[in-house]
Specification:
By secondary structure, this protein is mostly beta strands. The protein has five helices and 41 strands. Strands 34, 36, 39, 40 and 41 form a five-stranded mixed beta sheet that branches. A four-stranded mixed beta sheet has the order 1-7-6-3, with no helix packed on it. A hairpin with a 4-residue loop joins strand 20 (297-302) and strand 21. The N and C termini lie far apart (147 Å). It comes from Oryzias sinensis. It is a single-pass type I membrane protein. This is Cadherin 7. GO terms for molecular function: beta-catenin binding; cadherin binding; calcium ion binding.
Length: 778
């Protein structure tokens, strides 16, 4: 049904065919059909020609060739990348295209009337595809690679997979089809061409021989054909360790020498079995398989160095045994069952330990000696003996001494040769019942060798302390106490400690044993009770009774003491609670007339003396020096009085505010004429006005005048003081502007006109007028 058919045209695009559809304009059956159908246009990327690249041609049946139709191109890249000849419809590409940047462009074409710019055909859309060329090499995005594979791995063990990408179009040609090959790393490893998987090419590679390989892998596009682009990357393959090597001692036997004085838990020797594996595969456990002196030594593993450390477990004695033979085994801690065929993973060696003799200090036959002595033992009494010997073969003689730090008061001595301990001072069990002594045993031939022994001396008790009251008793006796009433229970204490315990006997001492007031009852339980024999005790008769109590212990020989018990008579209430105790004070019933007169005379005499003292102080002349608190220079007196304003002319003498040059009263505070020299000489009859002096002299003369006044002032304080004068000089050349000064100046100005100014200026006229002015301040 179309008037025209599709025509195949060839453009100048590198010889490649370009398809496009011509405009179809149907006139059949007076029916307006679509005038054009579009296919895709193709253009090669990376065109390097000097002229624009021809893309294709557009044509419409409406275009009769008379120039009335104009072709318009819009869309992606229109006018910037693609241009169209508006007359012929030829499309050209003006820039180099990169498919990897943009693979296709969508454009719209339309035929319009050249004059009216109205469309003569509907707008249609077409696509310009950028045709790929092989301009990008494969790239390993994740390279370079690090990989690891266990040593001794079998042939074909996978190591790592590499991958390269090509930015070219994978749907067009072989530009993006990549194959892999190994450039460097053979014959140890291989790579699968299509997958990029790297595998081991040799079996049983040994890490201890070589632990790292660097491979160079190439990826080439165009399926590896000639002309293809390629990229490379490196793969660092590290062989990881496995436990395929057993530990081995470098020697069959080892010899070490130690001193017999080596302390316990000291290191005797260090041995090591070498294992060329690393990490946990080289961890070794050591053990003593056999040897002399069971339990004498022990061996452990130093985790940092993997050495076998031999420790001393028991004390060495050269005189008993001077050498030890040990058999040591070293075994891998972590054995891999895959490599048991390479075993056994253990090794043995022999160790000989030789003991050297040293000069040892003396040794006591008994480290701790216990002795007893009575506290009444006489000086020089032997209480025991200590014994020590030299363990060395020389068997040197021993001398003994006491460490005086353990016997500061020197209660004991020790015989230097025999070791017999004896008393040196009287002992007192009550002061110290146990003495802990340190005994030194010193070799005669080598005094630096000193052995230590200990002796515990227990002091046995004897009855050498008399019993005493257990406390200071305060016994109170009520005046209303009845006969036979118990007033106190007493007990006793004794510093001694008899084997069978204490037993005390009580009685009243002989002087009062038959007294009529009190009696004592022994309770047979180491206590006694004090009872009254009568009633009717009175404080006024006797306030305190003192009872001597005899206390006897059960020692052999028995000891006794007399203790005094004080009984105070008290006034008590009905419940027996003491209200007041002690002697009763006697008070006089009255005073005689003579005593009262004497007391009254004393009081009157004291009053007269007080009045005389007060009168004398009042008549005392005030001192010239003012008291500190009354110094007027340190007090501020405030008056809250307010002046009367402008009309108050009598509250204050205005003349005192006049200028210094006018107001000068030579008689004020000048009853004595000072001889103080002045800086400028002038007749004494009349002092010049300050205005006639230079400015720098005015202040000096003013200060000198005030200094003279202070010197002759009888009321001035006789000490240095600060005098403040509010004087600012003689003023400016323009004279003073003060109305107060104008009253006493010699000015020729006439102020009579103020009277003509009305009632408001009457006061000023009275102050400054020639006639009334003088009378105001007279």
């Amino acid at each position: 049904n179309f008037d025209n058919i599709m025509t195949l045209m060839r453009g100048k695009c590198g010889g490649f065919p370009l398809l496009f559809c011509l405009c179809l304009n149907s006139q059949v059956q007076q029916r307006h059909k679509r005038s054009w159908v579009w296919n895709q246009f193709f253009v090669l990327e990376e065109y390097t020609g000097n002229e624009p690249l021809y893309v294709g041609k557009l044509h419409s049946d409406v275009d009769k060739g008379d120039g009335k139709v104009k072709y318009v191109l819009t869309g992606e890249g229109a006018t910037t990348i693609f241009t169209i000849d508006e007359n012929t419809g030829d499309i050209h590409a003006t820039k180099r295209l990169d498919r990897e940047a943009q693979a296709y462009y969508t454009l719209q074409a339309q035929a319009v009337d050249r004059i009216t710019n109205l469309p003569v055909e509907p707008k249609s859309e077409f696509v310009v595809k950028v045709q790929d060329i092989n301009d990008n090499e494969p790239k390993f995005v994740d390279g370079p690679y690090l990989a690891g594979v266990p040593e001794m791995s079998p042939l074909g063990t996978m190591v790592v997979q590499v991958e390269a990408t090509d930015a070219d179009d994978p749907t067009y040609g072989n530009s993006a089809r990549v194959v892999y090959s190994i450039v460097h790393g053979q014959p140890y490893f291989s790579v699968e061409p299509k997958t990029g998987i790297i595998r081991t090419a040799l079996a049983n590679m040994d890490r201890e021989s070589r632990d790292q390989y660097v491979l160079v892998i190439q990826a080439k596009d165009m399926v590896g054909q000639m002309g293809g682009l390629s990229g490379t990357t490196t793969v660092t393959v590290t062989l990881t360790d496995v436990n395929d090597n057993p530990p081995r001692f470098t020697h069959d036997s080892y010899q070490y020498t130690v001193l017999e004085s080596l302390p316990l838990q000291s290191v005797v020797a260090r041995i090591k079995a070498a294992d060329i594996d690393i990490g946990s595969n080289a961890e070794i456990d050591y053990r003593i398989m056999d040897g002399d002196g069971p339990g004498m030594f022990n061996i452990t593993t130093d985790e940092d160095t993997q050495e076998g450390v031999i420790f001393l477990q028991k004390t060495l004695d050269f005189e008993t045994i001077n050498s030890f033979a040990l058999k040591i085994e070293a075994t891998n801690r972590n054995i891999d069952s895959n490599f048991l065929s390479l075993g056994p993973f253990s090794d043995t060696t022999s160790v000989k330990v030789t003991v050297e003799d040293v000069n040892e200090p003396p040794i006591f036959s008994s480290p701790l000696s216990q002795m007893v002595v009575s506290e009444d033992a006489k000086m020089g009494t032997s209480i025991g003996r200590v014994s020590a010997h030299d363990p060395d073969s020389l068997n040197s003689a021993i001398r003994y001494s006491i460490d005086r730090n353990t016997d500061l008061e020197r209660f004991f001595n020790v015989d230097a040769l025999s070791g017999v301990i004896s008393t040196a001072k009287p002992l007192d069990r009550e002061a110290n019942s146990v003495h802990n002594l340190t005994i030194f045993a010193i070799e005669s031939q080598d005094p630096t060798q000193i052995g230590k022994g200990f002796a515990v001396v227990k002091v046995l008790d004897v009855n050498d302390n008399a019993p005493l009251f257990a406390m200071d008793y305060e016994t109170l006796l009520c005046e209303n106490a009845m006969a036979g009433q118990m007033i106190q229970t007493i007990s006793a204490v004794d510093k001694d400690e008899p084997p069978n315990g204490h037993r005390f006997y009580y009685a009243l001492a002989e002087p009062v044993a038959t007294n009529l007031n009190f009696t004592l009852r022994d309770n047979k339980d180491n206590t006694a009770s004090i009872l009254t024999k009568r009633g009717g005790f009175r404080r006024r008769e006797q306030p305190v009774y003192r009872l001597p109590v005899l206390i006897v212990d059960s020692g052999s020989p028995a000891l006794s003491s007399t203790n005094t018990l004080s009984v105070r008579v008290c006034e008590c209430d009905s419940d027996g609670v003491a209200l007041s105790c002690g002697a009763v004070a006697y008070t006089a019933t009255g005073l005689s007339t003579g005593a009262l007169l004497a007391i009254l005379g004393c009081i009157i005499t004291l009053l007269v003396m007080v009045l005389l003292i007060v009168t004398m102080r009042r008549r005392k002349k005030e001192p010239l020096i003012l008291e500190e608190e009354r110094d007027v220079r340190e007090n501020i007196v405030r008056y809250d009085d307010e002046g009367g304003g402008e009309e108050d002319t009598e509250a204050f003498d205005m003349v005192t505010l006049r200028n210094l040059n006018v107001i000068r009263d030579p008689n004020v505070r000048r009853d004595v004429t000072p001889d103080t020299p002045t800086f400028f000489h002038y007749p004494s009859a009349s002092r010049p006005a300050y205005k006639n002096l230079p400015d720098n002299v005015v202040f000096r003369e003013f200060i000198w005048e005030r200094l003279k006044d202070a010197d002759v002032d009888p009321s001035a304080p006789p000490y240095d003081s600060l005098q403040t004068y509010a004087f600012e000089g003689s003023g400016s050349v323009a004279e003073s502007l003060s109305s107060l000064e104008s009253l006493s100046t010699d000015s020729d100005q006439n102020y009579d006109y103020l009277s003509n100014w009305g009632p408001r200026f009457k006061k000023l006229a009275d102050l400054y007028g020639n006639s009334e002015g003088a009378s105001v301040f007279s």
